[in-house]
Amino acid sequence: MKRSQDIPVVLLHALPLSSAMWQEQAAALRARGHTVITPDQRGFGTVPLGTAQPSLDIVADDLAVLLDERGIDQVTLVGCSMGGYAAMAFLRRYPHRVRALALFAARAGADSPQAAAERLKFADLMLDDATRDHVVARTTPLLVGATTRARRPDLVDRILTMTKAAAPEAVAWAQRAIAARPDSLPVLRSTDVPAVVVTGEEDELVALEEAMSAADALPRGRLVTVPGAGHLQPLEAPDYVTDLLTTLLDDAATADGKR
């Protein structure tokens, strides 16, 4: 039987953060002996944006190249928010490379025309020097739940620092890529691997019904609601999220052993 430590883990970050958002989970999983990969997506962290047109397929291909360079075939794929959308794009393009799946704060359906238009407007505002700071200050608190805002001002400040550090061009590119993404429910329905869909009890950006839809689509999916957390559950409830990922990895190893 394979050990859970034999399964490399990829943690994909949310918008507009970087791979640093996963530092607690990455450290805990590495301490258990896992290979953990926390890539920065295009334009974030240390990775240049490049000149490609906005597309999550490009982001998925970037990850495939990274795994090839490291000689890794299959992974447990974990994504939060934008990272979840990138994970579903990877799943569409490379389904044979995903051994287990965790989606945090990500809706599986495509954006409605209104939602897509709002993303495109947000992208334009981020590129405007006159509006950028106001937009960042107004939207960043919505990334966490009311409990976190009330009790963890230090975390809110930390997230605000990360959002201010993001390149406006990268944020705009990512929003345009997310706005153009297709419906991922069909690919989830054909994804027969251990899977968990995670939502925050206080998430103000992704509705519980949308998380339920994704979990229901996955043949082996289950829904978990993180109490007292909003959109960024890995930062708001790091130990809770680490335990979820540990359980998923154990489930994936057990499933492999039964093949």
From TrEMBL:
It comes from the Bacteria. Transmembrane segments: none annotated. InterPro entries: AB_hydrolase, AB_hydrolase_1, AB_hydrolase_fold, Epox_hydrolase-like. One of its GO terms (molecular function) is peroxidase activity. Residues 8-238 form the AB hydrolase-1 domain. Keywords: Hydrolase, Oxidoreductase, Peroxidase. It holds the Pfam family Abhydrolase_1. This is Alpha/beta hydrolase. It comes from Streptomyces alboniger.
